[in-house]
Amino acid sequence: MIDSHCHLTHDRFGSDLQGVLDRARAAGIECCVTIGTGVEDSGRALALSRESGGFVRCTAGLDPFSAHRVADRFEEAFERLSLLLRSGGFCAVGEIGLDYHYDLDPRPVQRDRLERQLALAEELDLPVVIHVREAHADMVEVLTDHPASRGVIHSFTAGLAEAERYLDLGWYVAFNGVLTFKNAEAVREAARRVPEERLLVETDSPYLAPAPFRGKRCEPAYVAHTLELLARLRAISLAEAARATADNARRLFRL
Fold this sequence. Notes:
Layout: E1 2-6, H1 17-26, E2 31-34, H2 39-51, E3 56-60, H3 64-70, H4 74-86, E4 92-99, H5 107-124, E5 128-133, H6 136-144, E6 151-153, H7 160-168, E7 172-175, H8 185-193, E8 199-201, H9 223-234, H10 238-253
Parallel strand pairs: 1-2, 2-3, 3-4, 4-5, 5-6, 6-7, 7-8
């Protein structure tokens, strides 16, 4: 199994990160992709990746939240991100995207920041990890305008119609603990229908723990619970679901 999206640099892992990694290995996970959110956090993700002997891989990006925090210093942050990515050691640009739920910044500003990072990923020939919340129409429009971009729509929480739009553009779709939530039937329908070769699993830990751990801190070992449900939804074995999603993660991120 591969956890294609987690946040191992989060403060909630500060006291027992080694235990978290040990439990992930014991659960059968071969690799965790830890996601950089902001320049400083991306630097920490790179350091963790280098210390892990390959068990942890890392990404770097200015997501809507970290981009909002730097405010009028975005240009400086973007230049630092570019230098960091060019230094090597990252398997993707991200997470980056649009968040209209919180509307942290004006929507044209969010789009511009997203497009600049998409262009950087294209220049560096890196895949992209996309964050999108209540902004699917605009996201599809942006990605259509960047046909050279490739990557994954992480933490997919929409329905089949939205999934098909991303699939038509050649993107992967990743499911996490939300798949196990009682009110997520539309997400489960999408998970049934996404082609096997475009399917990823993730935890987004420490967030979105799957049932039966909902409300608790999530960690990479819990990706197995999402995979179990994914396998049942698709009427395949757990081993088949694990193999397919791991193969897809290896291919996308060049692991």
